[in-house]
Design brief:
It contains no helices and 13 strands. By secondary structure, the chain is mainly beta. It has one domain (about 5-145): Rieske Iron-sulfur Protein (3-layer Sandwich), CATH 2.102.10.10. The strands form 3 sheets. A 7-stranded antiparallel β-sheet has the order 1-4-13-12-7-6-5, with no helix packed on it. A hairpin with a 2-residue loop joins strand 12 (about 130-135) and strand 13. The structure holds FE2/S2 (inorganic) cluster. The site of FE2/S2 (inorganic) cluster has 11 residues, from loops.
């Protein structure tokens, strides 16, 4: 599969703030990237295509390289979340980690992170892993490289 980055400008898509992190049935977009302008919440950004959501089984993760990013794409009960693949503690790969609920345990020293927020959840990990605002449009997963999954 050609994983070359695909920049796409999406039209504003209304989304409610409480829908962050939740895959919407319609208009088939999800997780963060919500912005507030003039009292209207929407999604608009230049986004990177990452992978197809159907390539990431529920409860699993996939490593994806796109442009300068090396990413871990997680499927938590049908909702897609994207973080950096590299553990902040060392050479571990989070896409090869053990996933339980919202937590991924690094495959190297067994430290852990919250997949939704990137916060370190267990030592020796102390530094949060970077998360990305993620949009799932039909089966395509995109990230906004400028925003985290928490809207920052
Ligand atoms: Fe991930 Fe040490 S490299 S916990």
């Amino acid at each position: 599969m050609d994983m070359a980055p695909l920049r796409r400008a999406l039209p504003d898509i209304p989304v409610h703030p409480e829908d962050e992190g939740v895959q919407l049935e319609d208009p088939n977009c999800s997780t963060a990237a919500a912005t507030e302008e003039g009292g209207v919440t929407g999604i608009h950004a230049d986004l990177f295509f990452v992978c197809h959501a159907s390539d990431v089984p529920a409860g699993a993760a996939t490593r994806v390289e796109v442009d300068e990013f090396v990413l871990a794409v997680f499927n938590l009960n049908g909702s897609i979340f994207v973080t950096d693949d590299a553990c902040t503690h060392g050479p571990g790969s989070l896409s090869e980690g053990f996933i339980e609920d919202d937590i991924v345990e690094c495959n190297f020293h067994r430290g852990a992170f919250n997949i939704r927020t990137g916060e370190a959840a267990s030592p020796p990990c102390m530094v949060p892993v970077r998360t990305y605002a993620t949009v799932v449009l039909q089966d395509s997963v995109y990230i906004d490289p400028r925003r985290s999954s928490c809207g920052g």
